[in-house]
Amino acid sequence: MTPKNNFLVKYMSSKRVLVLWDEKGANTEDTSVLRKKSVELPVPMDKESRKIIQALIDSFMARDDASGLSAPQIGINKRVIVFRTKGFDEGQKKVKSIDDIEVLVNPRITQERGEKVTAAEGCLSCPDVQVEVSRFPEIKVRALDVQGEKINKRYLDYVARVIQHEIDHLDGKLIVDYGDVYYPKRKQLFFEKLFNDTR
Length: 199
Ligand SMILES: [Zn+2]
Hints:
With 199 residues, the protein is an alpha+beta fold. Helix content is 24%, strand content 26%.
């Protein structure tokens, strides 16, 4: 078992986040990775799995504009997600501590409760746009934690939303699949062309 602090060494293996499009237009290379269904990490976790988890944590911690991140977004088609669990309300942008984040390996939603709630979501892999997405306000998830231990946990509200968003990534699903895409007016020409070309 690896002590928690080993994961905080440095954000050495921080990787670029893949995007469906960039300023040049559709990014077909990144898209093919983002659209692929990811596979589970082996249980028990091996050395390679721990490296992948570390790379995901590093890439997440290096940013100040994300609530969550999934392995396919850094080019690794494995079922791992990371998200922050604290500091949303205090206007704290950057995640400061490893205690503010959680990693889920091979996550599976085993229960969904309550009436779906609609809210605007953004995604690092879909730059500049927002989409209204309906998600369950309460979920139960079976997964392995960062240490590779089995967990079974309930999540609520915003964190539940982030987890559903990140698990979507593991199945190649992105916010643009959910409905109308909202983008800033100044980028209207760019997005009209992009969505005409790719839809
Ligand atoms: Zn996303």
